[in-house]
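Q: Predict the bound structure with D-MYO-inositol-1-phosphate.
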Amino acid sequence: MDLHEMDRYIKSIIKEAGHRIRNSFLSDISIESKSNVNDLVTNIDKEIEQFFISRINRDFPEHRIFGEEGFGDEIRDQKGVIWLLDPIDGTMNFVHQKRNFAISLGIYDEGIGKLGYIYDVVNDDLYHGVLGGGAYYNDEKLCRLSDTVIEESIIAMNATWAVPNRYFDHNGTLQLIQDVRGIRSYGSAALELAYLASGRIDAYISMRLSPWDIAGGMVIAREVGAVATNIRGEPANLMKQDTFIAANPSIHSRILEKYIQQK
Ligand code: IPD
Ligand code: CA
Ligand code: CA
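A: Predicted complex:
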């Protein structure tokens, strides 16, 4: 795989997809719910996934696609080249706010993340990472993360994890909230990973993420030295839904040891 050529190709289809999403603001969209009433999907999520699939099938017929809306391939192993795609990450924000959502895309070869993209469509901000080649915010190279401490950190986390839940003891999270400098919740896992990579936040924690939420962001975040695991400290899973924490390496293990006790 020629990463340089792929990178140019991917950037052009991501920008085209972004243009289509911005155009959708001009007409009515249809909204449905999936696993529960707050799990939204629109015709635009579906159309954008189909747009990517038609391009990938035409130009890279041997590659497979693991997309959130299910129009891609059924993926049961990590063989060959797989595109992990979330056409709109942050659909609730897309529907309610028309901002704070992103296209999230990771290209993996035999399970190894080679290229990662997060496109903040409304701000026209593209974050991308190339394995061994660094991470970028638009065309600016991102610096490696410098050490920090919990007390000076900003952590992104959904408020759901600070109330009783089935994954872990929420008293630990309440303590974390008291100990850190600030808590943020942006409503798009992909953007939260992009903010981690660009040093705007120091960690992002979620109890329920899917491979397409994190695939692109993991490539980008790792290029600046961030560590991404599940809450048991195992490598993040690209085959199924799991817990997730990505953080500045100087605080990752401390957060898990001191604050997150799995049930
Ligand atoms: C969701 C967003 C949200 C996260 C959810 C994801 P979607 O993705 O990333 O921030 O908390 O777990 O499912 O459904 O908008 O693509
Ligand atoms: Ca998502
Ligand atoms: Ca989505």
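A: The first helix runs from residue 3 to 24.
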